[in-house]
Each structure stands twice: as C-alpha cells, then as structure tokens.
Amino acid sequence: MGILSVLVAAIAGFAFGAIWYMTLSKPWIAATGIKVDEKGQPEGGSPLPYVLSFIAMILVAGMMRHTFALSGIDTFGKGLISGLGIGLFFISPWIMINNAYGMRPFKLTLIDGGYATFGCAIIGAVLMLF
User: 3-state class of 45 per DSSP?
Assistant: First the structure.
C-alpha cells in the first residue's frame, strides 16, 4: 500500500502543478524571461521538464511518507499541515535562495514557492488517505 500511496500522492501533486502553472502561466513566463512564440507558448518545448517533475514528485512523496511514518503523522489533518510546513519552511526558502543568487524576480519565488507549499500540502494530505 505504501508504493500506491506515494504514486497517488505524486500524481496529485503533479496535477496540482499543472493547474497552478496553467493559471499563472503568463506571470510565470514574464518572471522567468523565457522566450515565447507568437502564440505565447515557450519556445523549444521539451517533454524532459515534465518527466523530471514527475520523478521529483515521486521522490518528494516517498520521502514525505517515510518522514511521516517516523514522526507519527497519521491523520489527514496532520498530513495536510505537515506537508504545508515542508513546502513553506523547507522547499520555498531554498527556492528563494536559488532565485536570489540567480537575480530572478521575487515574483518567481512567490509563484514557485506557492506551488511547493500547496503542492506539498496536497501530497501530505493524500498520503494520509491510504
């Protein structure tokens, strides 16, 4: 059941990311400075970022499940709040550091950090459903 919960949680986090970035695509593209074509789509698209993103979701969900088991996090609410904390206090600050040194706009940190925060909350909640 552990592998199934990790996969379902990873899919939920990945799906949330699709919704998050589709909703915020224009500000995200502006903040990243990615070149776009005449339709407003990023140039030179590749499936690689999507593949790597899904692998990353599996890794995050797997480590969160492991950490939750060791910490006694065993309810939906605890999973949701713990996931929120992981995204807000572990992942988002790291994103901020990387963006700051890369001289990226703070708006990019807010967009990507928001995804990390809410995506981890969703992963944490879904992990507790199994």
Answer: coil
Is 37 a domain residue?
A: no
pLDDT (tens digit per residue) in 12-52: 999 999 999 999 999 999 999 999 988 888 888 789 999 99
How many Cα neighbours within 13 Å face the side chain of 119?
Answer: 27
User: pTM (2 decimals)?
Assistant: 0.94
Tell me, yes or no, whether 39 lies in a domain.
no
Phi, psi angles (nearest 5°) of residue 2: -60, -45
Cα angle for residues 74, 77, 81 (degrees, 5° grid): 100
What is the Cα–Cα distance from 73 to 50, expressed in whole angstroms? Answer: 30
The Cα–Cα gap between 115 and 23 comes to 11
In a domain, 63, yes or no: yes
Domain of residue 96, residue span: 2-32+47-127
